[in-house]
Write a structure and sequence with these properties.
Length: about 400
């Protein structure tokens, strides 16, 4: 008996995304209109097929996915652990955040004396770009993973709550990422947004991603129409989106059945997917994946001391001693204080380098207190969230 022979069918799109897709023909004689969600789904499946049908099965493909998180914090300083947990679990490359409730940092300016410093709030493996509000509440920021080449764009900032960062992209236009917050629906915030977009368009030829809390729940983005109150403001946002060729790609409500957080792009063909996950405030987080390859900077190694293998007896014998020199002088000038400190620091550093083993390591992205048990709980929470969303549809 002749054995069955199975060969791969090439040149045909025969992948079935779901049971319902069986009843939709893959080819038709006339074009079929579609929305952005169907385009995203199709592009995602194509990327998966291309990765599986690679000509070289041993070749490791270059990373082309850019993971963007849009989040409403509602006071980041009060939710530091929750925020770090979200970063650890979702692992975004870029974060567009609103309602930071921080103070003292403006784009292109030195922090004020009473500023809340970024190192007090944010993890060290991100570059932080902030535009704080001068009064209580509000504020936006953009985080970019340190290995990604990024530059803040203070020339694009207006009086509104907006922050811009340019991302260097390989073999394509650079990516201009913005975070915007409109706390009140009024003409002033729309005007400031329009000024900023006009400057961004005049600044260069880039692809734009603008995300944040626009606070316009009555806009039906599929038809680009606005219902309910604020008939002048919400249609104004639709007009701005049309004027600057911005496509709103997210359709799932983010707070109590309202779509407040939205994501605009100028190039929808880059979008692979956009989804909701539970947030750290009463707003959901939006996760957007883009098909783009960014420039990555090589991380500089850092020295890490292995203290459990230290020779503590030798360290105690050779520890720096500045008491004698300091006691010999009844008065010390400011220069001598600095000299004493430099001497102490250098002696201590030499002792550590010779008596404590060390190794070079890269920056650590994980959180020490999140172990296997906590990771399982995070995944379970995400599964339950997805089930609840399906039931409430």
């Amino acid at each position: 008996m002749t054995p069955n022979i199975y060969e791969q069918i090439t040149g045909l799109d025969s992948t079935m995304d779901s049971i319902s897709s069986v009843f939709s023909p893959l080819k038709s004689s006339s074009p079929k209109s579609g929305n952005i969600s169907s385009h995203i789904k199709t592009r995602s499946s194509i990327n998966q097929r291309q990765s599986h049908l690679s000509s070289n099965p041993y070749e490791i493909p270059a990373k082309t996915n850019l993971h963007i998180m849009t989040i409403n914090c509602r006071s980041i300083k009060d939710k530091r652990q929750e925020f770090e947990t979200a970063l650890h679990y979702l692992k975004p490359d870029i974060v567009c955040a609103t309602e930071s409730w921080l103070k003292g940092v403006k784009p292109g300016s030195n922090p004020t004396k009473d500023a809340i410093m970024s190192r007090e709030i944010f993890p060290p493996n991100y570059n932080i770009y902030r535009n704080d509000r001068g009064t209580l509440g509000g504020g936006v920021f953009v985080l970019v993973e340190k290995s990604i080449a990024s530059v803040e764009q203070p020339s694009l900032i207006t009086d509104g709550e907006i922050e811009w960062v340019k991302i260097k992209v390989k073999h394509n236009k650079d990516l201009l990422v913005g975070s915007f917050y409109m706390p009140h629906r009024d003409q002033k915030h729309l005007n400031e947004l329009q000024k900023s977009l006009e400057q961004a368009r005049a600044n260069g030829n880039t692809n734009v991603v603008l995300a944040g809390d626009f606070n316009c729940p009555d806009i039906i983005w599929d038809t680009a129409t606005a219902l309910g109150p604020d008939r002048e403001i919400q249609p104004g946002l639709v007009d701005i989106a049309k004027s600057y060729k911005l496509t709103q790609i997210h359709t799932v409500p983010t707070r109590e059945g309202n779509l407040l957080e939205v994501v605009f792009v100028t190039n929808p063909t880059l979008v692979k997917s956009t989804n909701n996950v539970p947030g750290i405030s009463d707003h959901d987080i939006i996760i957007t994946d883009l098909e783009t390859k960014v420039h990555h900077q090589k991380r500089q190694p850092r020295k890490c001391y292995i203290y459990k293998k230290a020779k503590w007896n030798h360290i105690n014998m050779h520890r720096p001693n500045t008491h004698t020199r300091r006691g010999q002088r009844k008065t010390s000038t400011r220069v001598e204080v600095h000299q004493l400190w430099d001497t102490f620091k250098n002696q201590l550093q030499n002792t550590m380098n010779t008596k404590i083993p060390n190794k070079e390591t890269r920056s650590r992205n994980s959180i020490q207190w999140i172990k296997h048990k906590e990771r399982k709980m995070l995944k379970k929470k995400q599964r339950l969230y997805k089930q609840a969303r399906k039931i409430n549809k």
